[in-house]
Design goal:
The chain has helices at 3-11, 28-31, 34-41, 69-78, 227-251, 253-269, and strands spanning 17-19, 45-48, 65-68, 84-88, 116-120, 125-129, 136-142, 146-151, 189-193, 198-201, 206-211, 215-222. It is α+β, with helices and mostly antiparallel strands. The protein has one domain (3-269): Sandwich (Jelly Rolls). Helix 3 runs antiparallel to helix 4 (69-78). The longest helix has 25 residues, at 227-251. The chain binds 2-oxoglutaric acid.
């Protein structure tokens, strides 16, 4: 596929696509293994997260606790575990790893200070959400398999999005259609990423991630090209970090969560 085709058919119309050979020239493609990270960075203390935030009033970025990276890598290598590492910027500790991949000439506004890694154990998952800063995400899989379910931004009301947030209470892995009947009408994409596959997640796209096996990925991100998208992103960051947190403090987390849920249901009923 040429760069032009990729841009015209997928990037400009904001359509997700899996690319098989995107990372073929990266040193990381074969160098980055669980053993490599264990041997070279195993002593780092890393934050780990658990799966669900639905129904709990917590966010998908809530930290559970910390452990040694080598212990965590052993955990995901040996069997199912719900523990994940989310938005892990290993490059702050090991900047030399940035030389193992590159930023292909597809976007003008890569966020080069913020490449992130995601690790997860078999059966762990990330509840459905979209990225607050509205960046385009280029997610490359290493070691293992992961299933990603994607929905376009226009599906937000069908997914019962909570106002002022980038998330909702529906459980895409085990959907409750009685409680959320409009969810039946939503259509998305399912893709299974294997070692070396790269997924383009366009700005504002909802994604639910399920680790079919233990594994990890690298995400590089690009800010949206147009100014209105970038202003919307600033507004969303303000909504979530100031308004949503403020309401939660004022009313109590459970009460505010219940109110957001009611508003989401009301909106969906009107569709
Ligand atoms: O792959 C993962 O664990 C999560 C990826 C994700 O949510 C993201 O890139 O925004």
């Amino acid at each position: 596929m040429t760069r032009e085709t990729l841009q015209n058919d997928f990037i400009n119309p904001y359509k997700p696509v899996v690319m098989k050979n995107f990372s073929k020239n990266w040193t990381a493609r074969n160098k980055w293994t669980l053993d490599y990270f264990k041997k070279n960075h195993g002593d780092l203390m890393v934050p780990v997260y658990k799966e669900a935030f639905a129904n709990t009033g917590t966010s998908y970025t809530s930290t559970e606790n910390k452990m040694r990276f080598s212990e965590y890598l052993d955990l995901i290598a040996t069997g199912p575990t719900q523990y994940r590492m989310f938005l892990f910027n290993i490059f702050k500790h090991a900047p030399e790893l940035c030389h193992d991949f590159d930023y292909p000439d597809l976007f003008d506004r890569y966020l080069k200070k913020h490449p992130f890694m995601f690790f997860g154990g078999e059966t762990s998952f990330v509840d459905v959400h979209y990225d607050l800063d509205l960046s385009h995400v280029i997610l490359t899989q290493f070691h293992g398999k992961k299933r990603i379910i994607l929905f376009a931004p226009e599906c937000s009301d069908y997914l019962y999005r909570h106002p002022l947030t980038v998330s909702c209470n529906v459980d895409i892995g085990n959907p409750d259609f009685e409680r959320y009947p409009r969810l039946k009408e939503v259509k998305g994409y399912i893709c299974d990423l294997e070692h070396g596959d790269t997924l383009f997640i366009p700005t504002g796209y909802w994604h639910y991630v399920y680790y079919s096996t233990g594994g990890f990925s690298l995400a590089v991100r690009s800010r949206p090209e147009n100014l209105s998208q970038r202003m919307l992103s600033a507004l969303k960051i303000f909504n979530l970090t100031i308004l949503d947190h403020g309401m939660s403090t004022l009313l109590g987390a459970q009460k505010w969560y219940g109110m957001k849920e009611q508003m989401a249901v009301k909106k969906a009923n009107k569709l």
